[in-house]
Amino acid sequence: SHIRHAWDPTKSVAQNLAEMGLAEDPNKAVPIPKKKMLGMEVESDGQQQGGKIVRKPYVVNEMEYEASLPEKKSNTLSRDLIDYVRYMIQNHGENYKEMALDEKNYYQDTPKQIKRKINVYKNFYPEEYKDFIASLKQEKMDVQ
Questions:
Q1: Which InterPro entries match (predicted)?
Q2: Handedness of CA 4, 5, 7, 8 (dihedral sign)
């Protein structure tokens, strides 16, 4: 979006990118030095980009700032998995062998697989898990 707003449609791609301080060809922007095999001498092209004037440095600055921001966690668990885990904990507590034999275990998960799914749920939603366990304990106390 930063490039889009700074783009001048009357100029070529190379001119627009040069004004923003961006490279049109990354191979020319950061050349790889050529080495001779026998003499271990390093050849350099001697090309410097000191002659280019950056007229729109704010574009690169905004892009660098946006890239430095921490990434938001957007991964969540499916509603089906959450319901499955809650059902298993509600009916079987911590008994993973019973969970494996339950009729709602459609995918025929082993006790270890079920335990792993419950641990994933605990890690993704620790507050929700604590509230759920507290509500189960409250239900047991109300029944007794």
A1: Ribosome_biogenesis_Nop16
A2: positive
pLDDT tens digits, one per residue of 94-124: 999 999 999 999 989 999 999 999 999 999 9
Q: What is the pTM of this model?
A: 0.50
Same domain, 85 and 118: yes
- Which comes out higher in pLDDT, residue 140 or 27? 27
Positions of E strands within the chain: 34-35, 42-43
What pLDDT, on the 0 to 100 scale, is given for residue 48? Answer: 47
Angstrom distance (rounded) from CA 31 to CA 44:
9
15 in any annotated domain: yes
Contact 105, 114 (CB under 8 A): yes
CB contact at 8 A, 108 and 99: no
Is 21 within the bounds of a domain? yes
Which parts of 21-71 are beta strand (E)?
Answer: 34-35, 42-43
CA-CA-CA-CA torsion for 117, 120, 124, 127, nearest 10 degrees? Answer: 80
Alpha helices in 69-125 (DSSP H): 79-92, 96-101, 111-124
